[in-house]
């Protein structure tokens, strides 16, 4: 199942099947959140959805399952596949929730069947608490969320070596997982491996903001208190690094970290100018993939500001989306570029001052 090049806001046709007058046309509301590559398939209400997510650079591979936590501008990579999503949801159900009329047994099972063409296997493991991370990893050993959450628990116990293994495994599952990069950087700093930590501090700051690890829902919020104010800490720690890792010597983002504040709510913000210059520096060097990542960051930062702010920087869906598609194309990521162009064409107000 490859990343689609045509956007669908109900990819498994679950919600549209309940519309008496026929299927609704897909609607696109934003090019920023949920991030490009997320396709909803099950609504929880209040704008929150489970959906498929294709990791950047893995458009040809099967997707993982993520939860879009609308009120917290966050995306939680809960499971590595829709089959393991079902297995973990089933494990959290009670012993009396196994009748065929239950929501879990009918609807979630139908989601797997719709996605794979196969009825999912059932199991007898029930009643797991949401934070039984070890147990859930026996059902989904490559869940980026559960691996990172267990890393948080182990770091809280000061078992830094085991925590490091968990964070690295989480990044193997989802390379752009900001929360795992920040967790790994925290581990490396405790071990005084500061130059190595600088790699992951940069990755935490440059990665997709919705993957920071927060959630409106308690059971999908990463557990450690050290994540509070993670963004400010990442900036401060990277700016105070006496020596960056050798791989960052010529890196445009690392070179200009002292000019960035990551502040929000300002009438004018020099960060936007600096980030745009960083995008062009990556593009000039031929690193279009990194240019696209930083351009995504520009869009996320602009989306948190006012309409007049975005007007001042000429950032609207047309200008932002066109440049993003171009950078994806230049990086050789044709599928994601085609998706962006399709989404841009389907926006309700493509010239509107929103992202």
UniProtKB/TrEMBL annotation:
The source's superkingdom equals: Bacteria
Q: Which InterPro entries match?
A: TPR-like_helical_dom_sf (IPR011990)
Name of protein: Uncharacterized protein
* Organism field: Blastopirellula marina
